[in-house]
């Protein structure tokens, strides 16, 4: 299963033989990924570019010609050497104010860049930097649909209230202790908060959420998800949860991961009828007795179950018993079968 950080990230891939110009877009997309460029002085930058990908280079300063690309919609500066000063000119180039996707992931930023001029921004990625505060998000357009700020040093959820069009919010690998200021994100579908220091669930009434990750936090309870009736995927591994509870209303749940917790029994999910993946490995579940009742609603839908590194996984006929109870199983632990 994918890690919470980067799970919602889109990788454009690498082109390391030659400059790639997308013929399908009539030369309007320029991909310079992994060219190890220190500057763009020897690169031709066509004025009609719609997409410019400069991922995985050695750039620390912006080429002024980027600021002349009036039709530019997507700009990726991912995995370079930009600091705050190096990226600052971008914020004043009004000619590219129609930008819809801005990726500054994996650089040396210490603060959120001023994105005031980008009135149509849909995707904003500042993950894997050295940002300590979300101050500056208030200047980001309320058109934003995807926001990525994972792997930074942020401590407080703030300046999110106006982002009411947001559908994906990735804040994994920061220093959050409290879930807050999410009330206005009414249509949020994905919330990624893995690897923080959160002790309690507070979804602030969000009901449209489909995917939530709170892996590797400090949770001791599963309570807090009851109103998220549209939830399809829930990732709670590596916490301190001792009891399965508060999940009976999640009738659309397909994936449930509560591995690496302190569970001693399986319960609270007997009403779930769409469960396909159930991850319970690395807990303290002693017996398979009663599992047919505990997971009764998903007998015909469950295709994957993980129970390894529990005492019950050492029981005689472990795999045979599970196959008999769940006829659609295709995987038990790492054993895949058809």
TrEMBL record:
Q: Where is this region: Disordered?
A: 1-20
Keywords on record:
Leucine-rich repeat, Repeat
* Transmembrane regions listed in the UniProt entry: none
Query: For bias kind Acidic residues, which ranges apply?
Result: 1-10
**Residue stretches in coiled coil:** none
- Give the matching SUPFAM superfamilies: L domain-like
List the InterPro entries.
Answer: Leu-rich_rpt, Leu-rich_rpt_4, Leu-rich_rpt_typical-subtyp, LRR_dom_sf
Q: Which SMART domains does the record cross-reference, listed alphabetically?
A: LRR_SD22, LRR_TYP
Name by which UniProt lists this protein = Protein phosphatase 1 regulatory subunit pprA
Q: Which organism is it from?
A: Dendrobium nobile (Orchid)
């Amino acid at each position: 299963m994918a890690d919470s950080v980067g799970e919602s990230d889109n990788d454009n891939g690498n082109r390391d033989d030659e400059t790639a110009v997308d013929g399908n877009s009539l030369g309007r997309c320029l991909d310079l990924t992994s060219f190890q460029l220190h500057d763009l002085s020897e690169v031709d930058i066509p004025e009609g570019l719609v997409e410019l990908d400069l991922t995985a280079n050695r750039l620390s300063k912006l080429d002024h010609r980027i600021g002349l690309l009036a039709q530019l919609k997507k700009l990726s500066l991912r995995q370079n050497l930009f600091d705050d000063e190096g990226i600052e000119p971008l914020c004043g180039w009004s000619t590219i104010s129609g930008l819809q996707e801005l990726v500054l992931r994996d650089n040396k930023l210490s603060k959120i860049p001023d994105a005031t001029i980008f009135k149509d921004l849909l995707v904003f990625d500042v993950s894997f930097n050295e940002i300590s505060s979300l101050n500056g998000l208030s200047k980001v357009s309320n058109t934003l649909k995807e926001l990525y700020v994972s792997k930074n040093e942020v401590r407080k959820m703030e300046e999110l209230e106006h982002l009411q069009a947001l559908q994906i919010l990735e804040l994994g690998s920061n220093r959050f202790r409290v879930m807050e200021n999410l009330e206005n994100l009414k249509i949020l579908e994905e919330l990624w908060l893995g690897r923080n220091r959160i002790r309690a669930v507070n979804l602030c009434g969000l009901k449209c959420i489909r995917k939530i990750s709170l892996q590797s936090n400090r949770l001791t309870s599963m309570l807090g998800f009851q109103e998220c009736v549209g939830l399809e995927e829930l990732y709670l591994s590596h916490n301190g949860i001792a009891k399965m509870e508060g999940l009976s209303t999640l009738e659309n749940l397909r994936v449930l991961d509560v591995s690496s917790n302190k569970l001693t029994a399986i319960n609270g999910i007997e009403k779930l009828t769409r469960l396909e993946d159930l991850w319970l490995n690395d807990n303290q579940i002693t017996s398979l007795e009663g599992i047919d009742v505990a997971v009764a609603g998903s007998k015909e839908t469950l295709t994957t179950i993980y129970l390894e590194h529990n005492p019950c996984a050492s029981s005689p006929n472990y795999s045979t018993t599970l196959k008999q109870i769940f006829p659609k199983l295709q995987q038990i632990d790492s054993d895949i079968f058809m």
